[in-house]
């Protein structure tokens, strides 16, 4: 891995806005690369540019799509009836997602492994956890990971009033924006328990509902080996993997990533994050 040019996520968003606008109409999803940059149309004045390691080739090869409008722009999100279970993928692309964090005991270890292999992932965070450890979201932003909304306190949404669901979701959007630098574009219901209000409110708040394809059941602490096996047996194009970086002892989840990530890469999988495209 070489040190090369990389812009902060916010800087990339500025650059990507112009690129996405120029791209015109497109499908809902496109594969982006999370933290990998698009060249800015013009040098942005002022803000210093922080640099992170990345593959130099990625700079040239990634399509200039998918970064979407700035966070202040209204977004039109369809109200779905079911969550997305996988993502459209070209080739052997997969998504790794980590829920319930951030947790200073486990999240840094996961981030370290992702950084070692120059891979971007998704973190569905709980607002209450973010409020305690905003620095971990700043690191996710700096390292190009995508952060999604997993409610404030991880309740079973199907037992809450619409007003309570709105509060759980919107407070979390706000704390993510403060810590991460932009509002989340993805929502995941705790326990995978979705209802109509969750889909409607998520769309109102500019978020797409993303579930998962493969559940590692890592929260049952089945053993590192079992978690690794579940990921490898479930691997496939467009597959979204669910594991956890908080909510209990996640030592096995951290260790498992260290084993299955290099194995997936060796098998030819491209581990990435989805980006939405907007008209
Ligand atoms: Zn959860």
Task: Describe this structure as you would to a colleague.
Strand 9, helix 8 and strand 10 form a beta-alpha-beta unit. This protein folds into 2 domains: 60 residues, no CATH class; 182 residues, Glycoside hydrolase/deacetylase (TIM Barrel, Alpha-Beta Barrel). It is globular and about 45 Å long. Helix 8 runs parallel beside helix 9. It is 36% helix and 14% strand. The protein binds zinc ion. Zinc ion binds next to loops. Keywords: Hydrolase, Metal-binding, Signal. It holds the Pfam family Polysacc_deac_1. InterPro entries: Glyco_hydro/deAcase_b/a-brl (IPR011330), NODB_dom (IPR002509), Polysacc_deacetylase_ArnD (IPR050248), TAT_signal (IPR006311). It comes from Streptomyces aurantiogriseus.
Structural features:
279 residues; alpha/beta; TIM Barrel; two-stranded antiparallel sheet; 36% helix; 14% strand; disordered N terminus; signal; hydrolase; metal ion binding; NodB homology domain-containing protein; NODB_dom
What's the arrangement of secondary structure elements?
Layout (H helix, E strand, L loop, with lengths): L1 E2 L5 H15 L5 E4 L20 E2 L1 H6 L31 E7 L7 H10 L5 E4 L1 H6 L1 H9 L3 E4 L12 H19 L5 E2 L8 H9 L3 E2 L4 E2 L8 H11 L5 E5 L6 H16 L3 E2 L1 E4 L3
Parallel strand pairs: 4-5, 4-10, 4-11, 5-6, 7-8, 9-10
Antiparallel strand pairs: 1-3, 2-12
Zinc ion (ZN) binds next to loops.
